[in-house]
Amino acid sequence: MRALGQPVAGAVLAVVSLTLGCxxxxxxxxxxxxxxxxxLASLFAESQLxxxxxxxxxxxxxxxxxxxxxxxSRIVMGLVNFSxxxxxxxxSRFSHVGIIAIEDGVAYVYDTVSGGPRRKNVxxxxxxxxxxxxxIKRPHLRFASHIPPAIEFCxxxxxxxxxxxxxxxxxxxxxxxxxxxxxxxxxxGLPMCGPIPINQLPNFxxxxxxxxxxxxWFTSISPQQAVIMPGNESMGIWSSPTLQLVLxxxxxxxxxxxxxxxH
Length: 263
Fold this sequence. Notes:
CATH class: Alpha Beta
CATH architecture: Alpha-Beta Complex
Shape: globular
């Protein structure tokens, strides 16, 4: 690990001022501890939300659905919301993707994060994982034969606990979230999208040199390297013509929709 010298410390301050809108970094909060009743009410609400999403997922989701979310993954000692940074630089509403598998009547999300591959029921995933928005797409019916091998890939990666790709490199034995989803379908014969160099992402030029250098320093990510992104209407997994929208973007805290479109 590199030492945090003056140049990097200066970059940290620069990126903090950028991400916080040039506001001073606040000190530790002095708020009173929440009351036991408040904590119990919060836990109950979270549990009910999770149950609602699980019930909805069991009724409506299918093997192979691709779930897009916006979360809060932080780097640089928690100072930089990398999810927000990566989605904004790619002009995307989402920072993370996973694949749905129905197991014993329950919808599970297979994905990979910095701690490694995960398998979480959709209720836990949407109610407890700091998800700000969610949308779901599904392979068109004519591509149904590609779904079982894609799910098998997900299960194998989870069982083997393949490490997360912190360098965001393609063609290695570690995966980051979008690479994981694309590769699951690519190996089944149905690639979702092609890679794009970071410095060709839509909003790359809008980020300052200190911000880009800071991310490169702490993540070993080069602006020239090609990546797979969750994407938008014109690039990345979201733009794949193999997928159709089945759940429009919504805040998961509002609960699942009352009705679900049939496709």
